[in-house]
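Appendix B. Raw example, untouched.
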Amino acid sequence: MKKLLAPLSVGLGLLGVLLTGFFVSAQAGQSMAPEDGSLLDMARPIFDEIMKGHYIASAALTLVLSVALLKRYAPGKLGTFVHSDAGGSLSTLLMSFGGALATATIGGAPWTWGMMWTAGGVAVTAAGGYVMFKKLIVEPILKPLSKKTPAWMAPAWGLVFWLFDKKVNELEAAQKAGDAAVAANPATGVTPPATDL
């Protein structure tokens, strides 16, 4: 029985290797002209920019692709973080930075530190500067730090936190008050007017 199973297992193993090789070759061929919007389709612009010699653009596009893959496939605590408020703000910031840098370099702009500064400004704006600053700096860093500072700094911290507190919209407050009034005294229905005949 062992003599019969040994050649069979070797044959099945070789068949598996050949099928895997065929599958990998087919996938590599598809990456040259993908039609289904696959992950390989997302990597094609990176390859194109490398072949054109635009290495800064390819690095920026790699950053965008890496963050996109991280948001989609990150496991465990990392996956939980990238889908939280702070992680979402950070990933939007990184993707926006990479996108702005890639757009500038693909457009033919020479690489400079000024371009990096401008791409950073675009990224902060795209990530919603105020909200991003609150989620990445005020909440996780400044609020815990304020508890460790001397008491005389409390007014300064109060001013900083007042700037980033959610303000109640007056229209929203009026709508809530109206809803509460209706809930307290609901309508009984429409009564027809009395007619004198």
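End of appendix B.
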